Every structure is written in structure tokens, then in C-alpha cells.
Structure to design on (721 residues):
């Protein structure tokens, strides 16, 4: 019996019984029964077996399932030693969902999809051997981290490591266009190419001239950004990996761009089909000045990017609007229009209610704390990547006359529950940084030279975290409490310290730093001031207990790290980012990212199989009170949690807001005496609160409606770690 002929299996029915209470209690035992049945009826029955490891590896190489080059970097006796170690760890999935997800989406199968060719420890071995690049010590360390699920490579990395016929290891890309037809054409081509190889693509359109702006040498006017959005959406729809997945992209526009109203209107359900974008995601970059104008209920000027670039000699995105706003208002050579700032603020909230868009990028917040010389102008498909970019110029032959820098994302995540149990926190993080650095070093996206160029100069990575709510519930700590927020801050402080330390070691070993390191705040030491001037060790007794076996760097340790970085530099320009890590969190038997769970028993619809139920990790009578749904949580607690991490994360985090159409009593004090329905005012208040707390980006707004539907749910597979 092959995978295509599975009949009379029991695991779906057993799993579905989780959702049927018995004597008023959740039948958690049914999940264990479903897992056991799945492994017996599905996996064991359809796993191709071999008489020896050598026979298996030879078969996989000879039949073009895995590459031979990375295998040949090791003595086979070492590979046998690594496998023996992995077997001795006695890995077991803890839930039916974890096993189902792994075997459905990640396990290598025969070409006819009839049989499995690997189990979990085989995929761990492929990742460890591939990303260690022949370094036996690092291979053992990585195997240790991944099999104990302290580290989870991003989906493209974990899935493709070692495979002969594979996609790229990187998760997603950021590109920008400048204000000419050649660059627009190159951007559309780049979107096609990047979508083809599997990544989600973020595109900055803020530099394009607005509708009505003049076109040089032609008697006419520009059509604005919306037609370019339509071209990009069609490109993503066409370049869909032979129908295997929908191409995914997000376009960003400055809130001060004259086309901002049309940009937002293109996502509305009732928009004219000629301008409506159905699958393209929208994001806006928001300078501090916008919040100030809204607060004062002032008129707001929108500025012609064409004129601004002519006056300032650089693309619109690279002009500091908050700083230059009054000068631009008073400059008669810059065409401008006015709207009410609060009317635009309301339009943003209306669209977020309706669709979950736009993402919000607090661009001044990001740049104020950016230690790298240069300017952040946008983000990616999931809003967690923020790196400096420089614009490119393309000639009439579609060649780069000036090659700028764009971004590819090399992501991975720590599993907070398991990393807190690591015998050596620093050693664990060191292995993760080195694995991610290998991905960066070996990423060669030559179809988009600006991305290839940026990656080669920056060596950037993005290590994040998942399972925060799992950890808090397991330790009976309320999400959003003072203890929880302090824990989050200390945890990400440690990630920052150890990623800096390893990046410094790599720079020392290779005698190489990221490009332009000498002009960074790392090089002059000022980045470390906040760590040297303040003690970041936990103060709450419960939080101290959680970290009792983990080294907490003191001010003298930060001082020493500062000296080492100033002397030897850093290899990685960027190091930390928290992605949404959606489906792969199930394989880790943990909660996604840093936000609260949706439901104690999550109902997830899987293609071809229907509904699968997933109990929250570590769910028990003791932990139930600590598992409150995100939809019933004050979003200020989520914002406070992310803000505690953001102080130490050099890039950003995918922060989703969870709302109900009908809001429960006493959740938000400003609702008292008003309607219990979610309003645009609620979203406006929360966006302003996030800005006040130093949040760099807001991802989706997800709304749970009165008819039990979710608005704004569109899981990003590219960045789901």
C-alpha cells in the first residue's frame, strides 16, 4: 500500500475527537492516539527502508534525490557517528499535527510520491551536514540544536538542504524601483524571477512619480503607481512555480505620496476591477510627521516625488520627510496637494478592518535606532526585515549603470521553550549564527544583481524566536504580565549578545567585516552605550529563577564585547528578526512567534484532508488559565511584549493585531459607554500606541467576525520560518 492508496486509516477520526468534549473535558489523550495511529498506518507502512546507512545514502545520490558534494566533504565514518548520535536522542513528535505536517510538507519522498525516503532525524542530518560545510564539530553542534528543536531553520532552508532538485534557501526578498521606465521594467522582471524561485517579494514604489506628474519629452502625464501595482500582481500570478504556489508580493508606498488614497483604494472589495489588486499585499511607510499631524488634526501635504527628487538630488524614499516637511511645504518648486491627516488615518483603519491591510512601517522609528550607515526605506512580505538599501540605475539596454543594494532574507528561529533548557545557551546560538551565515555566503541570486550585490556586501541574517506563549503558559506566567515582559526583554538581550559575539568571532577568523562597517555605530562603539550604562539582568524574582542556570552578561561583559567589536568588527551587518513562523511552529510543537495563541484547540483546515485539531502545547488543567486567546487579549499587552524584544532586535518583528468585530466588555477602557463594535478609532489608538512604544512595524490586522470568520488571514509561507 502506497501513500496514494491509503484506506481505512483511523488517525483523522481520532484527531477530530479532540474537539468533542467528554464529561466536560477535552480529550487530549486522543491526540496521542492519533499520533500513534498516523506513525503506524501512514509512516511506517510507507517508509522505504535500507539495510544500512551506506546503502541509503548511495541510493539517494544515485537516483538524484540528494547532492553528493556535501556528503563527500565528510569521512563516511563521521556521518555514521552523527546518525548514531541522532538515533540515541530518541526524538519523538509530541502531537499528531507535528508529525502530519512534517511528513506532508517536509519529508523527502520518491518521485512518484508513493513512499517516504526520510524521517525527521534524516532531515536533521541533511541540514546539519549541509550547513556545516564539512566542519565536523559544527555539524554535530547543529544536529544537536535541531534534533532537540532549539533551532529551526526557515522553511526553504530546512526543506531544501541537501536535495538535488531544490529551490533556494532564502525566504524572501526586498527590491526597490526608481522613477524611470527602465527601472520599472527591471523591477517587473525581478518580481517574475524571484517569484519563480520561491520567495516572497517586497517592492518599494515610493520613488515613482505620482499620477499627473509630468513625463519628460512627452506631452502628457504619468499614470501613477496603481498601474504598476497591477503589472506586478499579474507578474506574481503568472510566475507561480508551475501552479504549486501563488506568487506572493507586497508593495510599499510612503504615506506622503500623492497616490496614497488610490493606493489604498485598490485593495477595497468594491474597487473597480481595472484598479483592484486581489492578491498583492499593501504596506505603507509612515514617518513620525504623520503621527504629529494627526495628533494636531492638521492638514497634510502630499509631495510630488518627481519634484522632490529634482530638488534634493535623491529618490523620494531617501528624503527625511519629518525633518524636511516644513521646507518642502514652503518650496514653491515642489508640487503638492493637501488632505486632512485624520481623514487618511481613518481610511487606513477602514481598510485594515475590511482586509487586514496595510502593513505599517514606522520608518523614522526604524532609522533612529539603525546602527548601520545608510537608510532603511521599506520592509519585506512579512514586515520583519529592515536593512539599509541603495538605489540602482538601469540604462536603455536594461543593464545596471549604477548597481545599488537590495536585500535577501536568510532566516531561522530559536524555540524559546527548548533553548531555555539548553546546556549552553551561547554555544547553541553560535551554531545557529554559523548555519545562517552559510546560507548567506552561499546565496547567489544572480537573476537580480542588486540583491546578489547587497547580500555579498552585508552577509545579513535574521535569527528570531517562537514559542513565547508556550513558555509562559508552561511556567504559569500570564501573557503580557510584568514578569512575561521582563522575561521577553532578557531573552532577546541574550540573543543580541551571543549573535554579536559569534559575528565578531567570524570576522576575526576570516579577517573580514560587512561592507562599510567602519561607518557603523558598532565601529565607534556607541551602539553598546545602552548596555554599558544600564544593567539588563532580570530584577523580578520569578524571572531570575527562570534564568538561574543561564549566563547573564554584566556591564563589564558588554564593555569587553564592545572592545572586541571595535577591534575586529562584525561579519554580519544584520543579525536578528522575528518572522511569523506559522506552520513550522507545529513541527516544533510550540506556539508561533511571540504572539498569543488563537485557540486552546486550534482548528486548522488542511487541503485534501479537511479539518485537523491542534491542542496548545503543554495544555493541561494547570496551564489552561494561562492560554487566553489572542482575540480576547488586550493588544497593548502584545505591543508591550514585542516592544520589550524590539529594544534588542536590530531589524523588526512580524507583529499581528488580533481584534473581534464585537469587543468584550472591559478590554479597552475607551470603549466603556461607547459601542462594543470594533471601530476605526480602536485601530487608530492601537497604531499610535505601537508607535509610542517604539514598534517598527505592524503586520496584519486579523479580525474575528461575529459569524466566526477571520478577516486578514493570509499566512506567508515564504517567511513562516
Amino acid at each position: 500500500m502506497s501513500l496514494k492508496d491509503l484506506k481505512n486509516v483511523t488517525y483523522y477520526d481520532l484527531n477530530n475527537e479532540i474537539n468533542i468534549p467528554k464529561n466536560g473535558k477535552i480529550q487530549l489523550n486522543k491526540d496521542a492516539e492519533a499520533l500513534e495511529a498516523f506513525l503506524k498506518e501512514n509512516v511506517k507502512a510507507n517508509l522505504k527502508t535500507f539495510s544500512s546507512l551506506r546503502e541509503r545514502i548511495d541510493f539517494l545520490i544515485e537516483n538524484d534525490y540528494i547532492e553528493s558534494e556535501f556528503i563527500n566533504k565528510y569521512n563516511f565514518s563521521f556521518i555514521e557517528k552523527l546518525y548514531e548520535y541522532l538515533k540515541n536522542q530518541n526524538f519523538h513528535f509530541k502531537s499528531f499535527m507535528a508529525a502530519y505536517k512534517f511528513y506532508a510538507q517536509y519529508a523527502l519522498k520518491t518521485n512518484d510520491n508513493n513512499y517516504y525516503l526520510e524521517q525527521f532525524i534524516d532531515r536533521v542530518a541533511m541540514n546539519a551536514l549541509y550547513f556545516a560545510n564539512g566542519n565536523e564539530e559544527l555539524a554535530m553542534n547543529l544536529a544537536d540544536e535541531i534534533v532537540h528543536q532549539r533551532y529551526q531553520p526557515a522553511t526553504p532552508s530546512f526543506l531544501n538542504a541537501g536535495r538535488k532538485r531544490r529551490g533556494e534557501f532564502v525566504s524572501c526578498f526586498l527590491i526597490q524601483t526608481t522613477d524611470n521606465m527602465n527601472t520599472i521594467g527591471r523591477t517587473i522582471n525581478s518580481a517574475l524571477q524571484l517569484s519563480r524561485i520561491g520567495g516572497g517579494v517586497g517592492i518599494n514604489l515610493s520613488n515613482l512619480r505620482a499620477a499627473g506628474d509630468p513625463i519628460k519629452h512627452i506631452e502628457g502625464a504619468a499614470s501613477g503607481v496603481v498601474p504598476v501595482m497591477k503589472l506586478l500582481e499579474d507578474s506574481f500570478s503568472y510566475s507561480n512555480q508551475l501552479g504549486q504556489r501563488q506568487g506572493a508580493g507586497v508593495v510599499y508606498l510612503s504615506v506622503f505620496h500623492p497616490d496614497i488614497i488610490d493606493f489604498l483604494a485598490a485593495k477595497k472589495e468594491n474597487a473597480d476591477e481595472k484598479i483592484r489588486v486581489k492578491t498583492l499585499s499593501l504596506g505603507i511607510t509612515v514617518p513620525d510627521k504623520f503621527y504629529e499631524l494627526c495628533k494636531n488634526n492638521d492638514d497634510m501635504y502630499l509631495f510630488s516625488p518627481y519634484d522632490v527628487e529634482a530638488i534634493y538630488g535623491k529618490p523620494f524614499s531617501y528624503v527625511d520627510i519629518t525633518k524636511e516637511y516644513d521646507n518642502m511645504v514652503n518650496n514653491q518648486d515642489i508640487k503638492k496637494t493637501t488632505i486632512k491627516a485624520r481623514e487618511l488615518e481613518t481610511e487606513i483603519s477602514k481598510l485594515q478592518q475590511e482586509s487586514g491591510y496595510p502593513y505599517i512601517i514606522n520608518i523614522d522609528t526604524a532609522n533612529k535606532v539603525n546602527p548601520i550607515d545608510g537608510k532603511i526605506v521599506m520592509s519585506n512580505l512579512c514586515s520583519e526585515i529592515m536593512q539599509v538599501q541603495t538605489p540602482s540605475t538601469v540604462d536603455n539596454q536594461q543593464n545596471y549603470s549604477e548597481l545599488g543594494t537590495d536585500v535577501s532574507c536568510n532566516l531561522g528561529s530559536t524555540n524559546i521553550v527548548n533553548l531555555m533548557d539548553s546546556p549552553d545557551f551561547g554555544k547553541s546560538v553560535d551554531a545557529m549564527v554559523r548555519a545562517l551565515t552559510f546560507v548567506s555566503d552561499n546565496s547567489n541570486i544572480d537573476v537580480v544583481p542588486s540583491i546578489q550585490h547587497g547580500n555579498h556586501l552585508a552577509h545579513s541574517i535574521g535569527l528570531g524566536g517562537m514559542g513565547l506563549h508556550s513558555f509562559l503558559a508552561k511556567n504559569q506566567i500570564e501573557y503580557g504580565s510584568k514578569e512575561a515582559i521582563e522575561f521577553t526583554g532578557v531573552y532577546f538581550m541574550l540573543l543580541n549578545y551571543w549573535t554579536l559575539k559569534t559575528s565578531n568571532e567570524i570576522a576575526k577568523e576570516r579577517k573580514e567585516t560587512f561592507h562599510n562597517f567602519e561607518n557603523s555605530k558598532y565601529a565607534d562603539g556607541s551602539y553598546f552605550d545602552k548596555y554599558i550604562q544600564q544593567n539588563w539582568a532580570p530584577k523580578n524574582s520569578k524571572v531570575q529563577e527562570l534564568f538561574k542556570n543561564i549566563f547573564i552578561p554584566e556591564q563589564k561583559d558588554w564593555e569587553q564585547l564592545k572592545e572586541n567589536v571595535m577591534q575586529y568588527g562584525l561579519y554580519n551587518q544584520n543579525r536578528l528578526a522575528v518572522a511569523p513562523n506559522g506552520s513550522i511552529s507545529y513541527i516544533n510543537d510550540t506556539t508561533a512567534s511571540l504572539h498569543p495563541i488563537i485557540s486552546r484547540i486550534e482548528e486548522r483546515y488542511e487541503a485534501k484532508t479537511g479539518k485537523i485539531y491542534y491542542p496548545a502545547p503543554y495544555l493541561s488543567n494547570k496551564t489552561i488559565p494561562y492560554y487566553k486567546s489572542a482575540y480576547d487579549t488586550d493588544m497593548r499587552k502584545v505591543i508591550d511584549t514585542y516592544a520589550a524584544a524590539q529594544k534588542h532586535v536590530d531589524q523588526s518583528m512580524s507583529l499581528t493585531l488580533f481584534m473581534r468585530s464585537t469587543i468584550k466588555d472591559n478590554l479597552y477602557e475607551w470603549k466603556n459607554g461607547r459601542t462594543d463594535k470594533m471601530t476605526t478609532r480602536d485601530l487608530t489608538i492601537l497604531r499610535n500606541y505601537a508607535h509610542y512604544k517604539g514598534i517598527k512595524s505592524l503586520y496584519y490586522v486579523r479580525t474575528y467576525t461575529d459569524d466566526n470568520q477571520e478577516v486578514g488571514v493570509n499566512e506567508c509561507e515564504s517567511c513562516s520560518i
Residues 482-510 form the longest helix (29 residues). The chain has 27 helices and 19 strands. The first strand starts at residue 151 and ends at 153. Confidence is low (pLDDT under 50) at residues 716-721.
